Each structure stands twice: as C-alpha cells, then as structure tokens.
C-alpha cells in the first residue's frame, strides 16, 4: 500500500457558538467562493459545544484573531492511504476500519497523536508536523511513502528521515478508556457536485449558521445530538448530517453510496479530550476492525465521533460496554 503525505499544512481551531457571527463572512467565502481564496483544504463541523474548523494556511489567513477563536498551536499534515489499486485485504469494511491496524494502532504505540477526518471520498489522518519523522519511521515497513510536492508524488527514502528519526521514548501507558455516548440520530454520509453548490447555498447557510441558537444547543436532548460536517478538500465535497437535516436539502442534488446506508454515532469523551493523548482513535477503531465493521471517524476540537452502520450499532454498543468493564484487556 501507498501512504501519501499531502501537500497541505493545516491548522485546527474552534469557533465558539456565540462568536460565530464574527466569522460568517470569511466562512461563507471559504465554502462558496473558492475562486476568491487559495484555500484547498477546508472542513467545518458543528457540534453542541462549538464549531471545529480544519483548514490550510491560505484559509487560515482569512480568519482574524478573536476571543471567540481557539487555535491549536501545532501545524498538522494530512496523510492518505492508497491501496495500489488492489484491495488492501479481504475486508469489505470501509472508512477508518481499513487503516486501523496498519496506521492507527502503530502510531498509537509510538505515542503519536492523530486527528482523524473521514469524508465521503477518503480518510485523512492528520499528524503534527513535528512528529513526521516518527510517523515515517513507524510506517515505512508497511507502506511505500510519498510526499506530494507541487502536484508530484516524490518517494520518501529511509535515509531522508533517518538522521532525525527518534522513537518518542515515552513509557507505554494504558490509555484512558473514555466514556461514550450513542445518540439516537440517524446520519448520512453524502457528497455533492461542486458545480451544484450554489443551488443549495441558502439551505446550507441556514443549516450551518441559523438552525440553532446557543441556548437551544445547551438544552438539546441527550438522546439526539447536533452534528453537521462540511468539507471541501481539493475540489471534492463531503457532507455528514442527520436525516432531519438531510430532509431540508433537494434530494436530487446530494448523493450517497449505492446502498444508501444510514449510520449511527458513537461520541467519545466525557470531558474535552485535548490533543495530546494518544490511542483514542485506536481504542475505537481496533475492535471495529477486529469485527470487520465499517466506520467513519471525525475528530473535533473537543470530542471524537465514530459513525458505524445502523445495523451494527447493537453489537458495537455491546463491544464498547465490554471494553469498559475490562479495560485491562483492551
């Protein structure tokens, strides 16, 4: 398999709900006026707590400093796995499950923190730029590694990083087993032809910016959760929304997989997770991979979110409950 280090330097930040009004103009520009900005990697995810934005340095220039803007200090690099045109295994599972054992678990063992962004098209594994040599050293036996430079894929040779390669050297610690919440919403993972984006502009603006006030979010039922994710990355659009939001959009413009699958969410974390703890994604993705269950995974500024097929939610729930009863065995 091939591992590509994409040619984007990313920032991860959050915008408070009450501060969103200060950023609607630059966000609308980044979503709808891509010819007016040089941003090539943009993702906006609404959760009950805040809005998480992941964007490249060109996009980051569009956002002015504010007390309502919380920026994680690191530069992040997106990795993408390509299976050489062949199936990477006999597994029919999609999403993060395909890379749980080959990428997520080895990086967790080397104490590399990852930030996941699954889209309709693919899965992006974000790692800190300062951890890149450890990432390459950890994964070079499993993958042919390439770095995207000005549109070209340049092989990364072992000697390119060997001088700076050091294992993190931290003692292995048992990761915290975080509580999970499984809301009742049914979710869709969808895409859209970028040329038809203007056709849904008013609906998208309404859902993203005007659907709920902060007071409504604070009082939302624990059985349902506010979650909406929009990504525009290298010209490809991905949308994750619940069926209630989906009904507001024209059915003929959004498309999903041929199975039209519905997904249920597993939300990870009782308190905000932060960015330094390692193994959170592996804690969820590894048992799903063992059971060959597909999963999309979206990290946000405060919590992590896995989406699993609706028909698997009962077995996933039982699996996670068992994991929390016997943390030493996980």
TrEMBL record:
Name the record gives this protein: Cytosolic arginine sensor for mTORC1 subunit 1
Keywords assigned by UniProt, alphabetized: Cytoplasm, Phosphoprotein, Ubl conjugation
Location of this chain's protein in the cell: Cytoplasm, Cytosol
Entry similarity comment: Belongs to the GATS family.
Any single GO CC term annotated in Swiss-Prot or TrEMBL for this entry: cytosol
Entry GO MF terms: arginine binding; identical protein binding
Function: Functions as an intracellular arginine sensor within the amino acid-sensing branch of the TORC1 signaling pathway. As a homodimer or a heterodimer with CASTOR2, binds and inhibits the GATOR subcomplex GATOR2 and thereby mTORC1. Binding of arginine to CASTOR1 allosterically disrupts the interaction of CASTOR1-containing dimers with GATOR2 which can in turn activate mTORC1 and the TORC1 signaling pathway.
Domain spans labelled CASTOR ACT: 76-141, 259-321
Pfam families: ACT_7, CASTOR1_ACT-like, Castor1_N
Main location per the UniProt record: cytoplasm
Domain Cytosolic arginine sensor for mTORC1 subunit 1/2 ACT-like: 178-258
Domain CASTOR1 N-terminal: 9-69
Subunit composition and interactions: Forms homodimers and heterodimers with CASTOR2. Interacts with the GATOR2 complex which is composed of MIOS, SEC13, SEH1L, WDR24 and WDR59; the interaction is negatively regulated by arginine. Interacts with TM4SF5; the interaction is positively regulated by leucine and is negatively regulated by arginine.
Gene3D superfamilies found in the cross-reference section: VC0802-like
GO aspect biological process, one term: negative regulation of TORC1 signaling
């Amino acid at each position: 398999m091939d591992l590509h280090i994409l040619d984007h330097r990313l920032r991860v930040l959050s915008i408070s709900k009450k501060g969103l009004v200060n950023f609607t103009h630059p966000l609308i520009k980044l979503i709808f006026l891509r010819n007016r900005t040089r941003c090539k990697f943009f993702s906006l995810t609404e959760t009950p707590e805040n809005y998480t934005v992941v964007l490249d340095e060109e996009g980051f220039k569009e956002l002015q400093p504010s007390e309502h803007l919380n920026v994680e200090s690191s530069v992040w690099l997106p990795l993408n796995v390509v299976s050489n045109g062949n199936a990477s295994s006999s597994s029919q599972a999609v999403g993060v499950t395909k890379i749980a054992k080959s990428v997520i678990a080895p990086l967790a063992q080397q104490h590399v923190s990852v930030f996941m962004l699954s889209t309709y098209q693919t899965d992006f594994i974000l790692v800190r730029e300062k951890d890149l040599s450890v990432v390459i050293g950890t994964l070079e036996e499993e993958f042919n590694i390439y770095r995207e430079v000005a549109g070209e894929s340049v092989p990364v040779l072992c000697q390119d990083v060997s001088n700076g390669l050091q294992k993190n050297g931290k003692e292995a610690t048992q990761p915290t087993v975080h509580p999970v919440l499984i809301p009742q919403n049914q979710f869709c993972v969808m895409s859209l032809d970028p040329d038809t984006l203007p056709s849904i502009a008013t609906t998208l603006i309404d859902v993203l910016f005007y659907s709920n006030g902060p007071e409504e979010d604070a009082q939302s039922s624990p059985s349902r959760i506010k979650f909406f994710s929009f990504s525009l990355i290298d010209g490809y659009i991905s949308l994750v929304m619940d069926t209630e939001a989906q009904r507001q959009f024209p059915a003929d413009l959004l498309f999903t997989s041929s199975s039209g699958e519905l997904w249920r969410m597993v939300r990870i974390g009782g308190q905000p997770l932060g960015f330094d703890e390692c193994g959170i994604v592996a804690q969820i993705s590894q048992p799903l991979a063992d059971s060959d269950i597909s999963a999309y995974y979206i990290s946000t500024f405060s919590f992590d979110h896995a989406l699993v097929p609706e028909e698997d939610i009962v077995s996933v729930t039982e699996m996670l409950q068992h994991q929390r009863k016997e943390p030493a065995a996980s």
